[in-house]
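Check my protein:
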Amino acid sequence: MESLENLTVEQLRELLKQKGEEIGAICDKLAAAGAADEIPDDFLDQLIW
């Protein structure tokens, strides 16, 4: 993967979108495993920011 410094804004947005989707999939798996009560509603916001 090339350095983040060399990416365009659009490429960075796409990368963030992909990573967000990956994190969402992990959260879905955790929820399906019964951990939903332990995942805060703002988990993704905390992780990203």
The longest helix spans residues 9-35. DSSP finds two helices and no strands in the chain.
